[in-house]
Amino acid sequence: MTERSSTDVLVVGGGPAGCSAAIRLAAMGHQVTVLERSGGESPVARGDLLVPAAVDELVDLGLNLNALGGNAITGSRLWHGGRSVPVRWPDTRSSQSGGAVLRRSDLNAALRKRAVAVGADVRLGARATAPTVERGFVRGASIEYRDGSASEIGCRFLLVADGANSRFGRGLGTHRDRRWPYAISASTYVASERSTDSWIETSLGPSDANGHPVTGHGWVHPVGDGTLNVGVTVLSSYRDVRGVNIVKLLDSFARSVAQRWQFDPAERLVEPVRRRTPVGGSVSPTMGATFLVAGDAAGMANPFNSHGVRAALATGRTAADVLNEALTVGNSTTLQRYPALLDEALGRYHKVGRLTARFLGRPWPLRTALTVGIRSDAAMGAAVRIATNELRDGEAGGAERAYRLAAIIARFAPSW
């Protein structure tokens, strides 16, 4: 495809958020250019789980996960203290999509291929180094390519979607609210004959070096290709987070589940990498006069479990709707709707999540919640619905009642 020197929308980042917006905007007939700094090679291990709502978003974009080799997932087995509670995905959507596990590298490749198919200009190995600013308005970006060449591209609007701790976003003035929690995680791939299992495992409160449960979880996600994605996440609200070595915690967790999942914890297929992800809408601003910020670049990952794909796809969709209107009416003030739309969709949920993370960061509430909760199948089912934001609108189940109570409390709590 011929590279353009100017475009309607320039998207910095070719992951779920950027491609979600690019596919929709290109399908609407707008010129879209996507800059992705990687060359398309497989990245280090990341969380590969797609919750049902994320699958719905992908289906809406025209992707077929079965054709991509995604492993269908029925639900999650929650573990703590030697007890397991199986929880199926809640039936809350009009479609009957289930969850799936698909390598993030394969998902990103499929999204970029779909973006090209509908007319977007996707440039791999292209790193946006700095915004082009004219009279206070972002009008493009400088680009460096892997072969050492450089260029510039102009645009009417720009979408920042280059992932957690976005350098390009910081260059435009975005910043993380340091009072709010973030997630620290590490994961790897291992070979296993249980790779096609239809259930994931979620271990609540994995133990630190002193045997105390941490505010976070471990996971085992069967990828379906002969491998498992094994990882751990700790929230920064955990009181002793500075004493947690996330890679050692991963090693300990892997050893604890290795026999159950039939793998050798010493035979990792890739080296684990420590990552820090802002969660709960902790990055702002999410818009400027001519730019928007989406996905992990906006800190939109789920504050309960640090999952980011669903929020990335959803915020990309919202960004596309706003940008389409701005391009159609020719008025950049339309972009001012974007923060309000994000707050309407996720603001209350994010605040409840942040408050919950603070509460469970203390040893006694965490230990009590885990010990009591794991004894009740109903409590664990409610926890999954809340943690995955799969609440039933207009219903009065245990999850909905607990969430409404938490939302009332959060309304009067400080904004952290």
How would you describe this protein?
The protein is an alpha/beta fold. The protein has a domain at about 5-40 and about 105-180 and about 280-350: FAD/NAD(P)-binding domain. The protein is about 35% helix and about 25% strand. It contains eleven helices and 19 strands. It has helices spanning about 15-25, 50-60, 65-70, 105-115, 165-170, 245-260, 310-330, 335-360, 365-375, 375-385, 400-410; strands at about 5-10, 30-35, 50, 70-75, 75-80, 85-90, 100, 120-125, 125-135, 135-145, 150-160, 175, 180-190, 200-205, 215-220, 225-235, 275-280, 285, 290-295. The strands form four sheets. Strands 1, 2, 8, 9, 10, 11 and 19 form a seven-stranded mixed sheet that branches. The protein has a seven-stranded mixed sheet with strand order 6-5-14-15-16-13-17, with helices on both faces. The protein has a three-stranded antiparallel sheet with strand order 3-7-4. Strand 5 (about 75-80) and strand 6 (about 85-90) form a beta hairpin. The N and C termini lie far apart (about 45 Å).
